[in-house]
TrEMBL record:
It comes from the Eukaryota. One of its GO terms (molecular function) is ATP binding. This is Selenide, water dikinase 2 (Selenium dono r protein 2) (Selenophosphate synthase 2). One of its GO terms (biological process) is selenocysteine biosynthetic process. Residues 24-117 form the PurM-like N-terminal domain.
């Protein structure tokens, strides 16, 4: 979480770089949560991607090490527990490998609920860090994943609950529901690593990852720590197709259309210095060299002169993707 004196991660100065004047920092972050996916392997990948995302938000695309935080469920039958735990670990390790790191230790405990996450760390030289407080008026904002992951995760549960699915099916058909769940899971499993690399390439002035506070909540947090007197204006919200109709369905109020629906392992909200650089960032991210065409990204707003707050534009376009 962003605070007035800290970005998304802990940054501790640990010395100088090879006798030079630049400071070396130890960057670390931790995150863990109970399963959001019904597939334990996917859950492992999501947990790893979610843990790493705060590092990626400061441009740290190289991760030195990962510690795994694992809670083994005491409420599951032993046979099921062993399978689920093994598959979660497998998914977590595979995502670590994709990130260019590996699990070097951690902690395992027993708990009524399965929990998975980790503590990731790396070292950075000062000039490698993209601090969160450098936004400038005129910056163009890019979002690297669609919105709606939390609703999609709940939708996956509703599909197996006759009463809840009966309510949900009044506003979404089965095929659309299944596609929404699949798209959300693919997005949550995708690392923000390539987006972090491209932040460095295209001169990003700051970023944050979109998780528990939703798009507008995290935009507000990002705006609040700026050195310049600026605000963030969100002009477009890309939402996974079919989920908007569900935001007040099944006795829940997700505030998806208002920008406050929680996300898990969401995208990065990146501030680029110009429209051409933002367009080039999106094109590069979707190129075969990086995430490929399935990795959608959108220009969603602009940094404007203001009072360090964020808002939805009056004509904010809510689009299904």
């Amino acid at each position: 979480m962003l605070t007035e004196d800290s970005p998304d991660v802990s940054l501790i100065p640990i010395g100088a770089a090879g006798g030079q004047s630049e400071t070396i920092y130890l960057a670390s972050t931790t995150d863990f949560f109970s399963p959001i996916s019904l597939d334990p392997y996917n859950q492992g990948r999501i947990a790893c991607a979610n843990t790493l995302s705060d590092l990626y938000a400061i441009g740290a695309h190289r991760v030195d090490t990962m510690l795994m935080i694992l809670s083994v469920s005491t409420k599951m039958e032993e046979e099921h527990r062993d399978i689920v735990t093994r598959k979660m670990i497998e998914g977590f390790n595979d995502a670590c490998k994709e990130a260019g790191t590996k699990v070097s230790g951690g902690q395992t405990v027993f708990n009524p609920w399965p929990i998975l996450g980790g503590c990731a760390s790396t070292t950075l030289i000062e000039h490698e860090i993209i601090r969160a407080d450098g936004l400038q008026s005129g910056d163009v904002l890019v979002l690297t994943k669609p919105l709606g992951s939390q609703i999609a995760a709940n939708l996956a549960l509703w599909l197996g609950d006759e009463k809840k699915w009966q309510k949900a099916s009044a506003v979404i058909d089965l095929d659309t529901a299944l596609q929404a769940v699949q798209k959300a899971e693919k997005g949550m499993m995708r690392l923000n690593r390539n987006a972090a690399k491209l932040m460095c390439r295209f001169g990003a002035n700051g970023a944050t990852d979109i998780t528990g506070f939703g798009l507008l909540g995290h935009a507000n947090n990002l705006a609040a720590v700026q050195k310049a007197e600026v605000s963030i204006e969100i002009r477009k919200m890309p939402i996974i197709r079919g989920l908007l109709a569900l935001e007040s369905c099944v006795d829940a109020n997700y505030q998806l259309s208002k920008g406050f629906s929680a996300e898990t392992s969401g995208g990065l909200l990146v501030a680029l210095p110009s429209l051409p650089s933002a367009q080039d960032f999106v094109a590069a991210l979707q190129s075969p060299e990086f995430d490929g065409p399935e990795a959608e990204a959108w220009i969603v707003g602009e940094v404007v002169a203001g009072d360090r707050t964020a808002r939805l534009a009056e004509n904010c376009q809510v689009m299904e993707v």
